[in-house]
Amino acid sequence: QVQLVESGGGLVQAGASLRLSCTASGGTFRSYPMTWFRQAPGKEREFVAGISWSDDNIIYADFVKGRFTISRDNAKKTLYLQMTSLKPEDTAVYYCARSNFYLGPASSRETDFRFWGQGTQVTVSP
């Protein structure tokens, strides 16, 4: 079983930056795609950014393109999300997830992900 733990969330003002981390333990990290999702209050969970196991395939939701960067360090079993130019509408709980598909491409489909972290809260004030 893979355990995922997110960190790095917090309360910031609009325009600020944050870097989220997701550290894996208890299972394989390097051979599987990873993705960030988020869920704002009263809204459904939505895709943010995904990365393939080998870094050669990266996808972003339109609303974060140019502002967020996903990356991974397989040696440290850690996934990152660098967030810049944060907006109040970015306020949400951010979750990382590990894909079910060995050596698979980046994915935005929730059904592709079996292992999820508990989430980290990001709050952006106006």
- Mean pLDDT value: 96
What is the H/E order?
EEEEEEEEEEE
- Through-space gap between termini: 40 Å
Work out the radius of gyration. Answer: 13 Å
- Low-pLDDT ranges: none
* Tally of DSSP β-strands: 11
State the secondary-structure class.
mainly beta
Task: Note down, in words, how this protein is organized.
By secondary structure, the protein is mainly β. The chain is 0% helix and 49% strand. Strands 2, 4, 5, 6, 9, 10 and 11 form a seven-stranded mixed β-sheet that branches. Strands 1-3-8-7 form a four-stranded antiparallel β-sheet, with no helix packed on it. The mean pLDDT is 96.
Quick overview of this protein structure:
The protein is an all-beta fold and 126 residues long. The protein is 0% helix and 49% strand.
Question: Which descriptors apply to this entry?
Answer:
globular, 4-stranded antiparallel sheet, 7-stranded mixed sheet
SSE blueprint and pairings:
Blueprint: E1 3-7, E2 10-13, E3 18-25, E4 34-39, E5 46-51, E6 58-60, E7 68-73, E8 78-83, E9 92-99, E10 113-116, E11 120-125
Parallel strand pairs: 2-11
Antiparallel strand pairs: 1-3, 3-8, 4-5, 4-9, 5-6, 7-8, 9-10, 9-11
